[in-house]
Amino acid sequence: MLTKRIIPCLDIKNGRTVKGVNFINLRDAGDPVELAKQYAEKGADELVFLDISATLEGRKTILNMVLKVAEQVNIPFTVGGGISSVEDVDLLLKNGADKVSINSSAIKRPELINELSSKFGNQCIVVAIDAKQIEGQWKVHLAGGSIPTDLDLFEWAKEVEERGAGEILFTSMNNDGTKEGFANEALAKLSSDLNIPIIASGGAGTMQHFVDAFQLGRADAALAASVFHFGEIEIKNLKVELKNNNIEVRL
Amino acid sequence: MKTVIIDYGAGNIKSIQFALKRLGFDAVLSNNPTEIFLADKVIFPGVGEASSAMNMLRASQLDALIPNLKQPVLGICLGMQLMCNSTEEGNTKGLGIFDVNVKRFSNDVKVPQMGWNTVANLKSTLFHGIKDDEYMYLVHSYYAELCIDTISETEYGLIFSSALQKGNFYAVQFHPEKSSMAGEQLLKNFLEL
After folding, report:
1. Residue A55 exposed, middle or buried by CB count within 10 Å (0-12, 13-18, 19+)
2. pLDDT > 80? residue B163
3. What ipTM, to 2 d.p.?
4. Residues A64, A41: Cα–Cα separation, whole Å
5. Chain A interface, mutation test: which of B12, B20, B142, B184, most A Cβ atoms within 10 Å?
6. Is the predicted pLDDT of residue A19 greater than 70, yes or no?
7. What is the distance between the alpha carbons of residues A170 and A154, in angstroms, rounded to a whole number?
8. How far is B175 from chain A (nearest CA, A)?
9. CATH 3.40.50.880 matches B3-191
10. Domain A5-244 maps to which CATH number in 2.60.40.1500, 3.20.20.70, 3.90.1530.10, 3.90.660.10?
11. Signed CA dihedral, A88, A92, A93, A99: sign only
12. What is the Cα–Cα distance from A126 to A113, expressed in whole angstroms?
């Protein structure tokens, strides 16, 4: 059976990992390549690198990082952050990224999704959606969740699928950073509305939260950052716990 | 030993070259028919859309060459699908090496299938040292049906061929270059054939 995927997310600034990472036996906690290798060995199913560099100079370093990760890591990885054109994607894929994730640029110009999926295939186009529930309505937000739009999460997700996205990475701004669990109701609705895989993001604090994201939220994959980086949850232990709950995982 | 990865413009093939390098094998990327003909091992990759990939093969005159190769050939992902009779993707006629058709998954399952799934009923030396029900990484919307050349089965809504072999032609639907240690073992097996 197809397994549920566990995906650590690494924030990258100027080619280096940001936020503290608390691994033992790590020579350089800021080196994304070394971290990626460790995660692959620990049983991560995929990796996501999110480039949060603010400057053009900083962004340029991402290509070199992608190339090094592709050289040394034997699991798939997605690169997101600041991608706004066919050329951006072409360069990332040529340097060895398996998938790219777009967010604000798809909202600004939805045709970009069509262009990317017809040129590169829908399998490598992930559309990230940040949304916040305001007075019962899930509204899509821009720029890392700081700017609200008029878009309804479920309508936008449907459009994204129809335009050719291969996967949706849904982050609930209400849950992100709370460590109180994923937005399972919204996840379950996305999963039943759409016929492409959904990655849950935002809110992971305990192993039970992952169990819930898969069982209640019916997510296909779950993404988290700090609980993995600080060693609060070991991926191996998490997978054993999921297996004990009859959730199919790669062990 | 010379290994050639066929480079006909379809998708991210650097990952395969990197995976071979991690195993200590060098490989060259080429679309030159002579260089491919003379190689000891040939890898036929591919991601993207089937009909445009076939057009690119024709443009490099590789559609006639590949079915006549005598050395071990390994098709990966779309490469495997193009080695079959035909595919429903863009109603494309394939190379006809494997007498089987490629169909689209029904909407009873999420399409594309994306992630790790098991390979079972393993039947070839290609899987030497790889246990039944090992996990491999797959990303695809189309699948080859079961047939006499099936050497590995995977279930996703139905049971399909996740690997095929006929004589010197081998093909896998999954991405061995992205399938952790099990995938590396398979690539090593192929290179040591």
Report:
1. exposed
2. yes
3. 0.93
4. 22
5. B12
6. no
7. 11
8. 9
9. yes
10. 3.20.20.70
11. negative
12. 9
